[in-house]
Amino acid sequence: MNVPDFGKVAVLFGGRSAEREVSLSSGSRVLAALQRQGVDAHAFDPSVCKLDELVGFERAFIALHGRYGEDGTIQGVLELMGIPYTGSGVMASALGMDKWRSKLLWRASGVPVPDYVLLNDSSDFARVETALGLPLFVKPACEGSSIGISKVRQTGDLGAAYEEAARHDSLVIAERAVLGGEYTVAILGDQALPIIKIEPGTEFYDYEAKYLRDDTTYRCPCGLSEGREKELRAQALEAFRILGGRGWGRVDFLMDQPPPGSASRAYFLEVNTSPGMTDHSLVPMAARAAGMSYDELVVRVLALATLG
């Protein structure tokens, strides 16, 4: 599309989720990139502006993260208002935000996911530790950016990890640790971009490693064979489509540590339907590896904005 065809564009960022600060960083960079390309783009923070002020905008670039921005709510508003928007629709956004329900759908479709157990106040934590083995991860089902996640290493620590996760969400998952490496695949349209391997300086890829520290290593090429990477990129694209994803997004997966002589297996973790666009973010890294500048990436994502 030519830039004038975009019309007046709202860049939605900020919001009132736990990921507000990350969204402010993503959105300000997206806004600046669109304006550099001559797009008539304007900042719009739903926690400050009234939603009826979106009347008159012809497109929306969603740079909101977490609740009320990535979970289908703002997508529903834009559907009702008839404003085409970037990223996935209402259903896929809601599923992508919900780690439990996305796992249910993936598992039913044959996509491998780590073993997990839903937790609540009456869970037998000792039994869960035994069933899943240690270490394991405990996480809120509907938060992003590793908010509320704990790694449980010692017997008896699951209860405290549950309480921390439950501060952020009523739905909490305990998940078997898969420790052969963390990877991510950026999706743009019908294309899976080069895989990135993530090697955090911390024990796992937590909030600090994602946004605050400079000792996280990102490897692209990711170190997998060409054939294996091609296979996993196709599998990630299929996992994205199973949830109804469209436009752009990111699919995270883990590799296991197989016995000698056996091939490693991939286990899919989650989908991000409104990925970060900060200076630490993964989709811009993958785009660069594919020969695409940040500004070109942003314009291509906006060109995919749609309804329905």
TrEMBL record:
Residues recorded as binding Mg(2+) 2, renumbered to this chain, are E270, N272
Top-rank taxon, per record: Bacteria
Keyword Transmembrane helix part of the UniProt annotation: no
Its annotated pathway reads: Cell wall biogenesis; peptidoglycan biosynthesis
Cofactor(s) essential for the protein:
Mn(2+); Mg(2+)
Q: Which GO terms describe its molecular function?
A: ATP binding; D-alanine-D-alanine ligase activity; metal ion binding
Give the cofactor binding note.
Answer: Binds 2 magnesium or manganese ions per subunit.
| Residues in ATP-grasp domain copies | 103-303
UniProt xrefs under InterPro entries: ATP-grasp (IPR011761), ATP_grasp_subdomain_1 (IPR013815), D-Ala_lig_Van_CS (IPR000291), D_ala_D_ala (IPR005905), Dala_Dala_lig_C (IPR011095), Dala_Dala_lig_N (IPR011127), PreATP-grasp_dom_sf (IPR016185)
Q: Which residues of this protein are catalytic?
A: E19, S145, S281
Quickly give the catalysed reaction.
2 D-alanine + ATP = D-alanyl-D-alanine + ADP + phosphate + H(+)
Q: What does this protein do?
A: Cell wall formation.
Protein name in the entry: D-alanine--D-alanine ligase
Please tell me the species this chain comes from: Candidatus Accumulibacter affinis
